[in-house]
Amino acid sequence: ALASAARNVQYDDFRFSLTARGGAEFTTTQGECIPLEPGTLLWRAPGLRHTIAYRACGYSEFAIVAPGSLHATLVEFGLIDPARRSARLADPAPLFTALREASLAFQRAGQNAARLAVLLDVFRRVEREVEEASLRRGKGQALERARRLLAAKLDQPLSMEAVARACGI
Predict the structure, then answer these.
(1) Torsion angle of alpha carbons 100, 102, 103, 108, nearest 10°?
(2) Distance CA 82, CA 78 (A)
(3) Which residues contact 118 (CB under 8 A, 6 or more apart)?
(4) pLDDT digit string (tens) for 37-53?
(5) Quick one: CA torsion of 42, 17, 33, 92, rounded to 10 degrees?
(6) 74/82 Cα distance (integer angstroms)
(7) H or E element, residue 162
(8) Is the entire prediction scored with pTM above 0.85?
(9) How far apart are CA 159 and CA 40, in angstroms?
């Protein structure tokens, strides 16, 4: 059941969030729907019209709200893929720790250049976490393909090389 929603909103700032608990649905006006479960990273570009429907079980996130121009900088540095809005982490705990530390450093940094350096470090860390999650997911999918292949051909001799080749490993 949904508890509340922010409907058809648009912000000029750049927002990056990591869902801590609860759940929500993030939907763009183009129909893209992203479930926000614990461990979901979401980056919302400036000017994106969207709706967020929060579930009754509650929702909390760690969010970084920055000037919209930061989004263009992160895209330029290759730290954000503009075609992608979210990623799911199997273990978000290390990133929560890094974000907490970055938040304190950001508050201490008085100049915009120092704040940008802190945010670039955060997004480098996010990029590593997303890559590691993708690799783990890819390995899991390859292992599942191997398991299915072996189960389907129990009555046939198979070499490790043949199974690996069939699974793209």
Answers:
(1) 130
(2) 9
(3) 102, 105, 106, 109
(4) 998 989 899 999 999 98
(5) 70
(6) 9
(7) helix 160-166
(8) no
(9) 39
